[in-house]
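Quick one, tokens below. Sequence please?
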């Protein structure tokens, strides 16, 4: 579902990603690495929000460089960036309807999809609330809900549990486990947390612009843990 070969990204003269190879199928996968390792840049590429400078990317069997195929990917994609904007005057329901419309969901399917997404993140009682009046944790849950409203085949989540309490994290874990049965879920974080150990089948570590480890959490422990690949200062 995600296949990259020798993926490189340059910003002006700086190399942000250097020869990244990934091959991920259905399941929940972790993307780890220190701040500045290129995780968010990689997610933007996979979300078709940016283009690679060199190398190839195939998503859901399609080439995002081809406009028609890129649109097909976006219909099947869910994406939560680390920072995302909200229309403060929209209600939760209106915002989720808008997110579903952007994915070109059939109109008759949108109301039920919105109800399901809100219920999945525990906001079904807040659908009429305006976004500007929500707490930080509630806004984060709205971000997760908009990412999953179309039941995506490819789900990209950048630091999704930031601001969530223990109960909300547990709910999130159940949601991504369920989605990971048939979809490819890529969860990015800069720390090796319970989000990785509890729900992810494997982990990929980015460090200094490239993949330095890929394997199961157990294999990562056997190899010396996260600190064996990323110095403690980072």
């Amino acid at each position: 579902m995600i296949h990259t070969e020798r993926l490189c990204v340059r910003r002006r003269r700086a190399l942000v990603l250097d020869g990244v190879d990934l091959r991920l199928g259905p399941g929940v996968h972790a993307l780890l690495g220190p701040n500045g390792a290129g995780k968010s840049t990689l997610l933007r590429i996979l979300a078709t929000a940016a283009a690679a400078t060199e190398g190839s990317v195939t998503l859901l069997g399609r080439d995002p460089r081809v406009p028609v195929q890129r649109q097909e990917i976006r219909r099947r994609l869910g994406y939560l960036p680390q920072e995302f904007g909200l229309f403060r005057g929209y209600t939760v329901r209106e915002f989720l309807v808008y997110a579903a419309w952007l994915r070109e969901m059939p109109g008759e399917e949108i109301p039920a999809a919105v109800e399901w997404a809100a219920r999945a993140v525990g906001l079904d009682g807040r659908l009429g609330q305006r976004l500007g009046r929500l707490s930080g944790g509630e806004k984060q849950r709205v971000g997760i809900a908009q990412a999953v409203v179309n039941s995506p085949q490819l789900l990209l989540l950048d630091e999704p549990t930031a601001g969530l309490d223990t109960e909300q994290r547990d709910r999130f874990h159940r949601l991504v486990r369920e989605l990971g049965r048939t979809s490819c879920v890529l969860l990015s974080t800069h720390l090796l947390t319970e989000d990785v150990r509890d729900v992810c089948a494997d982990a990929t570590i980015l460090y200094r612009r490239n993949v330095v480890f890929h394997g199961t959490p157990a294999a990562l422990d056997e190899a010396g843990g996260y600190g064996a690949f990323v110095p403690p200062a980072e």
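The longest helix spans residues 166-179. The beta strands are 2-11, 14-24, 27-32, 54-59, 77-80, 154-158, 184-189, 202-207, 210-215.
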